[in-house]
Design goal:
The chain is α+β, with helices and mostly antiparallel strands. Helices cover 47% and strands 19% of the residues.
């Protein structure tokens, strides 16, 4: 996998976090070993690292679980299907 596609997957996770949290100050850093860290801008050009450097897949899981979570929408069909499964 090329570095560009890795950073795109990680960037998408950051974008989802920004949307969920309403905070545009989240970003990521990537070191020379292709390890990612989540950072939060604190002002005056300063930032706080929110996690230790991680490999991309681990980083994406971390970012997806970080901050507020969105509730999964459940349709009437999903509810009916769940009821059918519990009856059996």
């Amino acid at each position: 996998m090329r570095s560009g596609s890795r950073s795109t997957k990680a960037s998408a996770a950051i974008d989802r976090l920004k949307k969920r949290s309403g905070n545009e100050q989240y970003s990521m850093t990537m070191n020379s070993g292709a390890m990612f860290s989540l950072v939060l801008a604190t002002g005056a050009g300063e930032s706080t690292r929110l996690c230790e450097p991680m490999m991309m897949d681990e980083f994406v899981v971390f970012v997806n679980s970080y901050g507020p979570q969105t509730l999964k929408r459940v349709s009437k069909l999903d509810i009916a299907f769940s009821k059918q499964l519990t009856k059996k």
